[in-house]
Every structure is written in C-alpha cells, then in structure tokens.
Structure to design on (51 residues):
C-alpha cells in the first residue's frame, strides 16, 4: 500500500485503477508507446517450460 498521495503501479493493478495511475503519472511520449509499455508491465509472467 502506498503511503503518499500517489497510487503505485502494483496498487493500481490490484485495485483495477490504471486510469488513476495514468492521470497521476503523466508522460511526454506517444500514447500508443505508453499503452504498449504499461500493458507489457501489467501482464503476468508466462510460466517457463521445465528445462
């Protein structure tokens, strides 16, 4: 749980508040690039095959 006034990415993911996270953490990049990066960060890791 975050202690400041801003929500953490983990907290946003768990509480389904990604829109709030995006508003609190503005970016100066292309929206498409940011959405791609955020989507990749929010996906769960795939289980690796046994080696």
């Amino acid at each position: 749980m975050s202690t400041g006034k801003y929500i953490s990415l983990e907290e946003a993911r768990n509480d389904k508040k990604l829109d709030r996270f995006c508003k609190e953490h503005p970016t100066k990049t292309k929206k498409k690039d940011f959405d791609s990066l955020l989507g990749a960060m929010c996906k769960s890791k795939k289980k690796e095959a046994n080696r």
Q: What stands out?
A: The CA atoms of residues 21 and 40 lie 15 Å apart. DSSP finds three helices and no strands in the chain. The longest helix spans residues 31-42.
